[in-house]
Amino acid sequence: MADTKVYRASTTAPVNIAVVKYWGKRDAKLNLPTNSSLSVTLSQSDLRTLTTASCSALFPASEGDSLLLNGAPSDVSGARTQACFRELRARRAALEGADPALPKLSTLPLRLVSENNFPTAAGLASSAAGFAAFVRAIADLYELPASPSELSLIARQGSGSACRSLFGGYVAWRMGAREDGGDSMADQVAEASHWPEMRALILVASAAKKGVSSTSGMQQTVATSGLFKERIATVVPANMAAMEKAIAERDFEVFGEVTMRDSNSFHATCADTYPPIFYMNDVSRAAIRAVEAINAAAGRTVAAYTFDAGPNAVIYYLEKDAEAVVGTFYHALGGVGGWKTGAVEGLKQLVALEDGVRGLLQAGVSRAIMTGVGEGPIKTDEYLVAEDGSPAKR
Amino acid sequence: MADTKVYRASTTAPVNIAVVKYWGKRDAKLNLPTNSSLSVTLSQSDLRTLTTASCSALFPASEGDSLLLNGAPSDVSGARTQACFRELRARRAALEGADPALPKLSTLPLRLVSENNFPTAAGLASSAAGFAAFVRAIADLYELPASPSELSLIARQGSGSACRSLFGGYVAWRMGAREDGGDSMADQVAEASHWPEMRALILVASAAKKGVSSTSGMQQTVATSGLFKERIATVVPANMAAMEKAIAERDFEVFGEVTMRDSNSFHATCADTYPPIFYMNDVSRAAIRAVEAINAAAGRTVAAYTFDAGPNAVIYYLEKDAEAVVGTFYHALGGVGGWKTGAVEGLKQLVALEDGVRGLLQAGVSRAIMTGVGEGPIKTDEYLVAEDGSPAKR
Lengths: 394, 394
Fold this sequence. Notes:
The structure is a homodimer. Chain A has helices at residues 79-98, 126-141, 148-158, 214-224, 228-248, 252-271, 282-298, 322-333, 341-344, 355-364, and strands at 6-14, 16-20, 25-27, 32-33, 37-41, 48-56, 66-69, 72-74, 110-116, 170-174, 185-190, 198-205, 303-306, 313-318, 365-372, 378-380. By secondary structure, the first copy, chain A, is an alpha+beta fold.
């Protein structure tokens, strides 16, 4: 009799925010980077993507593979998404070839449903969590024996930084040397439990969306910036080495300085692109001045800013310095939503930010997100596809 | 009988705005730069410093040398100002030694009075015009046979970019190789008459004054930017060569692109400084987007932006493209003062700037200055010191 079962697997995957930035591809088709990068995986209790992968002979082949993202059908015909489907199916097909008893899932249409627990509009790196969950969920559905590093090779082809979201804690993406990208994958520098006190305060800037997409932006930088080659030849390798040592030694002073310097270096090469790319705005710069004021008042580096391809500030700090960092921003931005009431109540501020800085932040920050270092993808029995194969009622 | 004459000489000197930027000293004491630079001298009918140098046995030696700048006594005890006095006196003393008939002006106190015809608050490079006029006026008072290039050696020690204001037109400051700086001087790449159609529109940003002085800022960049050495080793030499060729061939397309790229490169190294230096703000970036929109609408490079150590935009263009450039900004910024009524009346706009860009410009630009390429220092019989040695009534 025909197999009418709906096979399902669900996973959650985290956002990661790089402290040594990925910017520049040496191979755009394979998503091979011009340099290695390193990130902190953020807690999924605050920011995560939940994805259910399902397949069934009941799904009409005519519909092909499909993805419902935050309730809306999402195009899966893009080369990068197709590459992920292809790689995962090939691995499943190999298993099926080796063990005829296995159901032929590789031949069935895939139905994926995915939801973020944070507004995509926030301009956070949702594609990283999205592709990591996408790959992990299908790998679980197919019961692939692949390690996270092997899966990171696949996720990388969907979205470069996604390869880092297959691990928790502190994660490096090694650029690799092979032309086919076979050695361009992520590995875990340290477990979250190695340095669990790491926290991140995200100041979401109420800015219009990006003018330039990251993909086209980074290739313009590679092609036109006269300073970029120095960044990848000298600056990043030094930052990677210093950052791995700082994490191994739990040295926040070094971790913080390298984080800030690498963010500055990345945005400098964007500004040196022709035509110039500006992701930071006056609100972003006010956040930098605020962090500098906090560190000056503390007499040491207790806060470290970093900015991705957008104006949001991500500020790393250690739990013990919450009052200096969160307290100061909370007092300047109390009116803004997103603070964890229990965590900020009673916090004093270390320093009163100067009016110009506070004014820019109050006018330009729409939301605060308090989070910290967290775990990698987690298998869950919460399904976004019902047993009958229909998208679950929410 | 004693010589009671008041010896006087007056000169005006221009502002210059670099198209290949000076940023970084290899010797802070001698003001020796890490790279060559190139600028356009702007017309003194719009922006100039008028300086009268005088000396007399009537001036009490106890008062020593003095400078009245824009009506206020200005400190002349700084090492840089003292270096200029010393160099000029030494040359006068040599003349006096060779010709005993000459009055011993080198032994007399100097009284200088200087006035700008533009608000210093505008954040324009007033120190360049100021030191150029200072040196030229004293050289004239002393009747030194020194060439402009020789005087540029002296002015350079007062303010690096001042050495370029001793010439009109298109001026290069050659970094030189000698340790004593004897070959770090300016020369004229082309007379203003070689390419007289060059115009500049300056958008004065209503910003607070600079947070970081250029002098300390550039040394922080040299010390901390990982990208800076690539700028001086590769980027600037290529820009200097391309710019001299573009000027020789009156090729605005190349002149404009190199101008914009070099400004971007300079500000990129500022952003890569630790802690980062930001001279441009959202208003500056809006001016860049406006220039890009104008060039896109024109289908060629008709406008080129450049930014010094502040948020003001200087936009170079050719007279024939005044409607495309000035017309567009005038229609977006009509309410702002400083436009040359005769020159803007009847100008249409080439393109309507998008609301976001226009809004930032309207909120952030306080004044427009319309000028163009101009001549070097000009001897004048307008004196700011009366025949009796007192500051002239204005």
